[in-house]
Amino acid sequence: MITNVVLLIDKRDIMSTKYKKILMKNNFLVFHLKNLDMASQIILNHEPEIIIISDSLDNDIDKNIKILRTINTKTRPCIIALSKSNDVNDKLEVLNSGADDYLSEPIDFLEFIGRLKAHLRRNYETQINDVTLLFNNKITTKILKRTLNDNIGYSYLYITIKNIDSYKDLYGDIAYSKMLQTFIAILSSCLDEKDYLGHFNQDSSFLVITSQNKIENIAKYMIYAFNKVKEKFYAKNDLNRGFLILKGDIFEETKTSFVKIFLGGVINSNKKYTNINELVHALVYINKLSALKDDSNYLIERHQLAANDSIVEKNYNLNVMIIENDDSLSLLLETQCKLNDYNVLKVDDSRIIFENSKFQPSVIILDAGSVANFEGVELCKKIKSMEYYKDTKIILTTVFHDKQTILKSGADLYMPKPYNIDNIINWVKRFNIEYNL
Q1: How much of the chain is in helix, strand and coil states, percent to nearest 5?
Q2: Can the peptide bond before residue 48 be classed as cis, meaning omega within 30 degrees of 0?
Q3: pTM
Q4: How far is residue 7 from each of residues 59, 235, 292, 418, measured CA to CA in Å?
């Protein structure tokens, strides 16, 4: 899918036609200008890989090259100077002005194309991720921009891998690289030379550009195949537990799930998107919607919403339930939550929890109990089994430091006592935002 773009700036009619023909014969897309007037617009819109500029223009070639170098693009173009001069001083002056190469005319066309390909090769080698061997975000963004300018209606699939950084922290760089390479191998097996795959936004996010009739099959197969192989990358004790523990028992920690993939797709067959920012916004939004599921998932945008579609205002849940045996700590938690505009219900009798049908908390701060009595842990299990509280986040605070037992009970956060009150309030805020997404 990658078509290399060349901007040829040459005032001459005959020579520029010859250069253009040889470039097009070698599968370059060529834009030809006879002066610099439109150069800035073409460079910004098309981000050419190579700019070839002749000394046939009115100004000195070194001054023209300096002007070209002031045009900022995300990917730096290679500038090649064409000149009738073979003088060393002229060459040095042009190279020092910012040119990457200097060709004295007449030049053999085979050498001409060979030099261009050598520059392209070196340029691309610097834009490749060391682990996946895929192009980075800069190249992907450039390709994305070009497809929007084509008459073909492409489809786009934005893929994110959740929790892979946590996996890397626990299992190390080698295991991380193997998992990522396996993912890429599976994804690449779905694609052909007409498709594009590259990094997008970050190392664990990718963009696939493909045709309308393939996008959903790719998404379905990716989830199926990745779920079949991912367990091979985990130790047996992690698989038996069902989640990861990254830190020791003296540290607070949420339950970290295994690696998951989420795919958000856009079918742009009717050229609905012509602006890259709108398309990227749509891809990110659809990907986030797909990530609302607990397991790997995909979502494809099929229809454009009408401009007059009704907007539903969401009522945010700001309810926090506190179940804490220590009266002074319970009062402190209540006060701090109220200072942060949360509605608080303190519970002293667990029966209230099971009979409650009016106060639906987004977060529950629950005391795990004493070392001799794990009543809070058992209560957490019961709460998590109830449909009414299925989306509620539970912070389980504890004087006994057993992270595995706490997290296996269904708690969303293990918080060892004593804890900093500001820290637990920050977790309440974070979980409240997640609940209301």
Answers
A1: 45, 20, 35
A2: no
A3: 0.76
A4: 18, 54, 45, 65
| Topology agreement, domain 5-125 and domain 319-436 | yes
Residue bearing tokens 């470039």? 23
Other CB atoms within 10 A of residue 80 CB: 22
Helices (H), 150-309: 164-171, 173-188, 215-229, 236-241, 276-290
Q: In terms of DSSP H, where are the helices of 295-396?
A: 327-339, 351-355, 375-384
Q: Which CATH class is domain 319-436?
A: alpha beta
Instruction: Kindly provide the b/e burial profile for residues 128-166, where b requires at least 16 CB atoms within 10 angstroms of the residue's own CB.
Output: eeebbebbbbbbbbbbbbbbbeeeeebbbbbbbbbebeb
Domain layout of the chain by residue ranges: 5-125, 137-301, 319-436
Tally of CB atoms within 10 A around 408: 16
Give the pLDDT of the chain (437 residues) as one tens digit per residue.
678 999 999 999 999 999 999 999 999 999 999 999 899 999 988 899 999 999 999 889 999 999 999 998 888 899 999 999 999 999 999 999 999 999 999 999 999 999 999 999 998 999 999 999 999 999 999 999 888 877 677 999 999 999 999 999 999 999 999 999 999 999 999 998 889 999 998 889 999 999 888 999 999 999 999 999 989 999 999 999 989 988 888 888 888 899 999 999 999 876 778 888 989 999 999 999 998 888 999 999 864 443 344 344 557 899 999 999 889 999 999 999 999 999 999 998 888 899 888 899 999 999 998 777 788 999 999 999 999 998 999 999 999 888 999 999 999 999 999 999 999 999 999 898 888 87
Give, to the nearest 10 degrees, the angle between helix 61-69 and helix 88-96.
Answer: 20
What six digits make up the tokens of 66?
């300096």
The verdict on domain 5-125 having CATH code 3.40.50.2300 is: yes
**DSSP label of 233:** G
The b-or-e profile of 262-290 (16+ CB within 10 A means b, else e) is bbbbbbbeeeebeeeeebbebbbebbeeb
What own/partner pairs with CB < 8 Å and gap ≥ 24 does 57-66 have?
Answer: 57/9, 57/10, 57/11, 58/11, 61/94, 61/97, 62/93, 62/94, 62/96, 62/97, 63/97, 64/9, 64/36, 65/94, 65/97, 65/98, 65/99, 66/97, 66/98
DSSP state of 244: B
Say if domain 137-301 classifies as CATH 3.40.50.10420: no
